Amino acid sequence: MRAYEFATPLRTERLSLRLMTMDDVDAVHAYHSRPDVTRYMLFDARDRAAVITKVTEMSSHTSLAVDGDYLQLAVVRASDNRLIGDVYFSLKSVANDTAEIGWCFNPDVHGQGFATEAARELVRFAFAEVGMRRLVAELDPRNAPSAALCVRLGMRLEGLFVEDMFYKGEWGDTAWYGLLASEWAARGAGL
User: Fold this and answer.
1) How many beta carbons lie within 10 A of that of residue 66, not counting itself?
2) Is the pLDDT of residue 61 over 70?
3) 3-state helix, strand, coil in the chain (%, to 5)
4) Does residue 164 contact residue 145 with C-beta atoms inside 8 Å?
5) Measured between alpha carbons, how far is 145 from 82 in angstroms, rounded to an integer?
6) Whole-angstrom Cα distance, residue 164 to residue 66?
7) Is the distance from CB of 175 to CB of 147 less than 8 angstroms?
8) Sign of dihedral through CA atoms 101, 102, 105, 109?
């Protein structure tokens, strides 16, 4: 993989995926502050100060070159320019051409296909633009909507790690989903 500098937003029929800016704080706070949204995340609901800190950090990540580099992209609905969620792309292993993807959306837009549309574009970006060989998604298996999204993306459940992580005061399980570039291409690259 060669180093990648994110400069141009990714676009789908209804969405734009772009770098976060400080103008996004209120929109991100609207859903990151909700316990129902963060229930299966590694972080608790965030107050506005925590969102400001996080958006500042996320907006500074613009390139992919070494393990751990990531992009946290704002998902903006084209029809009204409203930020409705964010997607995550992280280099897990440059040596093995492996990246991790994830997503978080405002419940106000659930059930409208926006998460699927954004995640499909993230998969295309990973394989067609960044040149990854493999994608993974790690999630709490109790998060049924995210597990279903992984399946819609063509990802397979590769493992379930029982009580492998202590967070939010209890032991939790982790489900690993995976997809290879060759599988994505064989399905017609559009899923």
Assistant:
1) 9
2) yes
3) 35, 35, 30
4) no
5) 22
6) 26
7) yes
8) positive
Considering only 35-44, 65-74, 114-123, which range has the smallest mean pLDDT?
35-44
Q: CA 20 to CA 56: how far, in whole Å?
A: 8
Instruction: Specify whether the CB–CB gap between 118 and 75 falls below 8 A.
Output: yes
- What pLDDT was estimated at residue 190? 58
E strands, 24-169, are 63-64, 70-77, 82-93, 98-105, 134-139, 156-167
Residue 121 CB neighbours (<10 A): 20
The two structure tokens encoding residue 89: 């792309």
Read off the pLDDT of residues 2-14 as tens digits, 9 standing for 90 and up: 789 998 999 999 9
What are 105-153's pLDDT values in tens digits? 999 999 999 999 999 999 999 999 999 999 999 999 999 999 999 999 9
Domains and their CATH numbers in the chain: 4-186 (3.40.630.30)
pLDDT class of 167 with cuts at 50, 70, 90: confident
Largest CA distance in the chain: 45
Residue 97 tokens read as 């051409």
How far apart CA 49 and CA 85 sit, in angstroms, is 19
What are 81's two structure tokens?
């320019």
